[in-house]
Design brief:
Elements: H1 2-66, H2 79-129
Helix pairs in contact: 1-2
Length: 130
């Protein structure tokens, strides 16, 4: 009778461990899916940014060809000042894009670290079972 209760307890413990491992596997799969979706989204954003930059450059070229790039707030300013202002605006746009991209990369790196921690915990649980 004591052997049977001991076996039942051991079996129950094993079943709980298997359930825990399945849950951890599911969590890792979800993290991998999230990582893949994040990478796909970053690639999509990068493509959009490149397309927008091409369009902006084409518009600037069109304005430069017509000689009407002095419209708006730059009207009446020295051409060198106008060129400097446009370069500054371009650099500010790039800086904001770079900051956003760095933030996304930091979040992706954190996700990778989380996956590594969960993987390590799973290996430790598997070793403790043996």
């Amino acid at each position: 009778m004591e052997l049977q209760s001991s076996l039942s307890a051991c079996r129950l413990e094993g079943e709980e461990m298997v359930a825990s491992m399945k849950e951890n596997d599911q969590n890792i799969a979800e993290m991998r899916k999230d990582r893949w979706e994040t990478e796909a989204f970053i690639e999509h954003l990068s493509t959009q940014v490149a397309r927008l930059e091409d369009e902006r450059n084409a518009l600037k070229a069109t304005l430069a060809d017509t000689g009407d790039y002095t419209a708006g707030v730059l009207r009446g300013m020295d051409p060198d000042v106008q060129a400097s202002a446009l370069r500054l605006l371009d650099s500010n746009d790039r800086a904001r894009i770079d900051l956003h991209q760095e933030e996304v990369h930091r979040e992706l790196w954190q996700d990778e670290q989380d996956v590594e921690v969960v993987s390590t915990e799973l290996r430790e649980i598997e070793r403790s079972e043996e």
